[in-house]
Amino acid sequence: MKEELKSEFASKMEEIAKQVTALVENDPKKSVIIIATESDNEGTGAVIAVAGRGGELAKGIAEFATNEESKSVLVAGLKLAQTKIMFQTLEKIAGGGISKDSKE
Questions:
Q1: Got the DSSP string for 69-83?
Q2: Which of 3, 81, 82, 86 has its CA at a distance of 20 to 30 angstroms from the CA of residue 75?
Q3: What are the extents of the domains in the chain?
Q4: CA distances from 32 to 1, 50, 63, 88 (A)
Q5: Per-residue pLDDT tens for 29-44?
């Protein structure tokens, strides 16, 4: 998603992320993770905000991972991340020699 064509949704999510981040900055008992996505013809853009103490964030992720409503989303995201990392690694190994236009 191109930066100069940021949608109203993405702009609002960035604003919310800044506000919420400010709320937790000085409170060791609070943390927040925001993931907002929006797709268009050029790909998927994401607004990601992470603020707070690492331990508290880890507890939140653990709750997300074990919650019946959200754990399938986490598993699907991890599988997608694994595939993406694998292809990035293969591109590095190939030295960037693989192109979409290659007929090999």
A1: TTHHHHHHHHHHHHH
A2: 3
A3: 3-52
A4: 24, 6, 13, 29
A5: 899 999 999 988 888 8
